[in-house]
TrEMBL record:
GO biological process: L-tryptophan biosynthetic process
CDD domains: PRAI
HAMAP family: PRAI
Name of encoding gene: trpF
Top-level taxon of the source organism: Bacteria
Protein's name according to its UniProt entry: N-(5'-phosphoribosyl)anthranilate isomerase
Example of a GO MF term: phosphoribosylanthranilate isomerase activity
Keyword Transmembrane helix: no
Annotated metabolic or biological route of this protein: Amino-acid biosynthesis; L-tryptophan biosynthesis; L-tryptophan from chorismate: step 3/5
Broad class of enzyme this protein falls into: isomerase
Length: 211
């Protein structure tokens, strides 16, 4: 059984589907270039609805302290996910803005990319391995997968989550190939960019649970 994070939630129906389906985490994106970006008001409302039912994650990209403080004030997230090119120092500084911890995303295309994990283990509470973004593309949320076998048998000093191009149809194979204990999805449970499909969320969570 793999734990799951449903990321890029933009409305209450999707949030409720994630909670009802047994997600451990829900993710809210604060990054204006993303089709899943949330205004402060919407972020606050969704975080309030989620409180106490599921662990909340705010996803940021190279956010400055002002933005992190604003996110903390309006949403009080359990976790902050850093999905840009934050270095270990910046990652450590962000810790004060999350209630439970930090998730640091690492882009993976080749086995050598996993070496970056070591520098973040002392400062992040969880790692996320996502497909390296295409040149000029968004830093995440691209529906791109990488070779999951790269992770097979690898051990890290922190818990980690598999991300990138996961869907209800491939998540079981991804878990089996990589050995992931937790998985993260955004595009694979959408009807269109930025609009989650509650049925696909339920299917993904059922598949992850039985993986
Ligand atoms: O989802 C986004 O729009 C996004 C924007 C900026 C940084 C990260 C983002 N999403 C993260 O990427 C993973 C993988 O997405 P996908 O399933 O391949 O579409 C997503 O789960 C978020 O953690």
């Amino acid at each position: 059984m793999a734990e799951a994070k449903i990321c890029g939630i933009t409305d209450a129906r999707a949030l409720d589907a994630a909670i009802d389906g047994g997600a451990r985490f829900v993710g809210f994106v604060v990054y204006p270039k993303s089709p899943r970006h949330l205004s402060r008001d919407k972020l606050a409302a969704l975080a309030e609805r989620a409180r106490g039912q599921v662990e909340t994650v705010v996803v940021t990209v190279d956010a400055d302290e002002e933005l992190l403080a604003a996110v903390a004030a309006c949403a009080g997230p359990d976790w902050i996910q850093l999905h840009g090119s934050e270095n270990p120092g910046k990652t450590a500084q962000a810790r004060q803005y999350a209630q439970r911890g930090l998730i640091k995303a690492i882009g993976v295309a080749r086995p050598e990319d996993l070496a970056q994990a070591a520098a973040f283990e002392p400062v992040a509470d969880m790692l996320m391995f996502d497909a390296k973004p295409p040149p000029g593309g968004l830093p995440g949320g691209n529906a791109l997968a990488f070779d999951w076998q790269i992770l097979a048998g690898r051990r890290f000093g922190r818990p980690w989550m598999l991300s990138g191009g996961l869907t209800p149809a491939n998540v079981a194979e991804a878990v089996s190939a990589s050995g992931a204990a937790a998985v993260d999805v955004s595009s694979g449970v959408e009807a269109s960019a930025g609009l989650k499909d509650p049925l696909k969320i339920a299917e993904f969570l059922a598949a992850a649970r039985s993986a």
